[in-house]
Amino acid sequence: MAVKIKLKRLGKIRTPQYRIVVADARTKRDGRAIEEIGKYHPKEDPSFIEVKSDRVQYWLGVGAQPTESVAAILRVTGDWQKFKGLPAPPPMKVAAPKADRKALFEAAHKEAENEPKAATTASRKRSEKPAEEAAAKPAETETPAAATEA
Known about the structure:
Blueprint: E1 3-12, E2 15-24, E3 35-41, E4 48-51, H1 53-61, E5 65-66, H2 68-77, H3 79-84, H4 101-114, H5 125-149
């Protein structure tokens, strides 16, 4: 049986995510796989590549043929050079670790506590007019009553 190491596409439209799989050469692109040996997310910056190196070495050793795209990924990770006995490539770029969301929230909360209380940004003109009119109406109603008594 001819075995290939190829990419199995997952993800939504315009956001591809691939699994690096070992499958029979006759199966469809997203068909049944013998084993899943890695992940590849090309849209992330830098691209996310995760490969089970020991399993790749095993499958290459027993004769599995990588497709062109998988061979390029294996060259980046250094697994192809390891299999062929070539010098290792420079290390891969790795995304910076994301900041802890809880720590970010606590820092923003402390900043908010230290800031002086500022007036609201909304204008007060609308809210002041009804109050002034309400105060003026009782005064007007009292004046005619006072005039009739005199």
